[in-house]
Amino acid sequence: MDIAEKLELLADAAKYDVACTSSGVDRSAQKGKLGNTSAAGICHSFTADGRCVTLLKVLMSNACIYNCAYCVNRISNEGKRTTFKPRELADLTISFYRRNYIEGLFLSSGVVKSPDFTTELMIEALSILREEYGFRGYIHAKAIPGTSPELLERLGSLADRMSVNLELPSQKSLNLLAPDKSKHDILSPMAFIKQGIEEARDTRRLMQKSKRASTTYLSTRNTAMAKPAREVRQFAPAGQSTQMIIGATPESDYQILNLSSALYQTFAMKRVFFSAYLPVNQDKRLPSNNAVALDREHRLYQADWLMRFYGFDVNEVIDESNPFLDLDVDPKANWALNHLDFFPVEVNKAPYASLLRVPGIGVRGAKLIIRARKTHVLREQELRKLGIAYKRAQFFITCQGKYQGGAVAFEREALRSRLAAPIQGGRHGSRSAKITPGQMSLFDQPQAGALWGGSPVGALGSGPAALKAGAA
Amino acid sequence: MTYKQTPDNIAYLYDGSVEGLFTAVFLTYAYKEDPIDICPKAAHQPRLGQAVRTIETDFALATRVQRGICRVAGYEVFDIVKVAALSDEPHTGMAVYHFIRYCMDARNAYGFSHNRRGEDALAPKIYGAGCGPADINTSAVRAVLHPDVEPVLKLERAVQNERHHMLEFLRFEELVGGLWCAKCNPKASVVPLVMDWFAARFNTQPFIIYDENHHVAGVYEGADWHLVCTDQFTPPPRTQNEEKMQEAWKRFYDTLAIDARYNPELRRHFMPKRLWKNITEVRDMAPAER
User: Of A56, A175, B64, B257, which one has the greatest count of Cβ atoms within 10 A?
Assistant: First the structure.
């Protein structure tokens, strides 16, 4: 099998992994070695579905001994099986990197023979990259549940980011869909990685301290101690992430967000990724409807951002009595509508944290406002110049004491109708079949009608039912 | 404008380079004039009864402008001006000119952190006189909404975004003879801004980045890089391995798309179609050139 064909097979099998970031670590270039990394991460291409390609995302092997219901690589699926030779993969990574196609490598794998055997293969490929070729680009390695700690430690010292897939949001769902994996198998490597990261950080800190001391008291003992500081490689310096599948099992957004909030706290996760369930297998354990949970995934990510960058607590974003996020209004606007007593906020005086709560003002906008109001009085014109989404923000702010929302009544329902915004899913693909509710059509749309039961309905009267229908 | 009640009906025409623009700015002081147009020769549209000065680029004068801005406002502010000056927008010349006048105006400059005596006595020792890093709250760009400041900040942001597009979408090809080459067509002359990044990253690998729109090539030979202005660019043929790698990459790229999520608008948003003709994996789908 030639390398291009192998690459196609193993990339096809890996593409359902959502994480493709190269962020979290700044590593400068070094004379004579290839590569560097930037903490913000750099995308290098975008696929036809608009997702970014940052890393060479492939599986080491698509041969797997497990039988997880949602996975394309499960043992009961037929299809070509293949495995990269470690050197083959390292060479391919270097060739792509030199052409500026990628920021580095994202290496995952199906379980060949045993988790330990698979991890050894991965380690071999990564050590060729790091130690033989001196590659300083980004490497994301997936820890296979059930791998022994010694191997995980070695893997973590070669990779920038590690991740363990949570797969499904609860033990019950896991038992149902991934009978070979258990909660313990998944959580214990997470805890191990967290511990490894912390230990490596502490060691480096101590080393740097002794290094600094050696410049003041230049004794042989101190310089000898300082030496390894450069040689101690960090353990997964860009932290760890995880992902879970949304919509394959009946968990509510309330459960999912609480779980992800707990993950951020207990395991110091850098990211928790959500992956809208896409049916790739026929299985009676899986939901049979074909509707894509993409809109739900979108709202979950918005809620996730609120928790990570906007200082929201999970209880503020969602509560038990309304366990699902509103699909018409984004979570931040939803919070604002439920807490009208907090508003309006005076843009010329309010502290940063309060500005961040205003729909239409983001992190960049709030920082700019703080900077601009030192020299200028802010009114509508100035706010628009700063790039604030004034159309949304106006209902929640005052400028020098004057309310900006105009004649719109300051009450939940009136404001809600102004803030409601359907998610833009593009004009093509599975989310394009939407019709704005209440929009009148002069002609019947037999083609569109066929999608929801064959009756030739126009757009009028289709309402929310049509919203949920999606494409077949 | 605080410096003159009515501007003179004069246009300053420069060659389109940053040095040319700075020379023009210097000469407005030398001639004691306040022109209403400063633009590249090619882009100029004369106004009724307008006098024209054609500026010869003079590196010595441009350097004096650079030193002046650094002295009054700090090198960080100069970096902002320099980046903004690379833009192709028609109002770039005037925006930069007004901003430099604003910086050099004694009444404004008094407030800049660099003109305050004694407050930061260490900075001149570390960075040289008047060349410390600017504090954002007292620097020349603190008044983000000032009519002389805001346009320059907008331009700078746009140029930085274009630079980032180049970091993302440059595609190097291996040519016969061991040279690597990338072509690009950015809408600001950003090649000088990306050279440091790629020189550090590729290190021992010599390469050329050629900008088709501005006819500028950045050349890195393994140690240092320099810029070359050229109208002609005929690279040697690609190696055999290069064709194979491009094919593998294209196959990888096509495989990654998930059909059920097809969303070309989103892709276009992140990866503008104007750049496609130089991006290996989407070159075939690039819009035809007019």
Answer: A56
